[in-house]
Design brief:
two-stranded antiparallel sheet; 2 strands; mainly alpha
């Protein structure tokens, strides 16, 4: 069998197509979760802890070359060329990851229940 026919057989297998669809849906799901975190979850949390806008929660490590601080927003600091530690962006990313990981866990758990699998117990020593 030639290499092209092998590749064609591989590419049209159900597993490859399922993987492609899963990747596309996963990327879009990630966008939805990021919007949920940034636009719905983080604003009330920022309000509860004293009106902090997480998008602009940063520490300036080095002043910018074109303009000295303090900077009102992260965008201003970046335009000035300042070196910043972006705490708010990191916290938002961690929360997004936790939500996505939990959602994937729930999906895998539901899928396993549909297939009738139960988790294997660890062997006792």
């Amino acid at each position: 069998m030639g290499m092209m026919s092998e590749f064609k057989e591989f590419a049209v297998k159900g597993n490859v197509m399922d993987l492609a669809v899963g990747l596309i849906l996963g990327a879009e799901f990630g966008k939805i979760v990021n919007s949920l975190v940034q636009d719905v979850i983080m604003p009330p949390i920022g309000l509860l802890i004293g009106g902090v806008d997480f998008k602009n929660l940063f520490i300036t490590l080095k002043q910018g070359a074109t303009q000295a601080g303090p900077y009102a927003t992260l965008v201003d600091a970046q335009k000035a060329g300042a070196v910043t530690l972006n705490i708010g962006t990191f916290v938002t990313t961690v929360i997004s990851f936790v939500i996505i990981a939990f959602a994937v866990f729930l999906i895998v758990r539901a899928f396993n229940k549909l297939r009738g699998e139960t988790p294997q117990e660890a062997p006792k020593a």
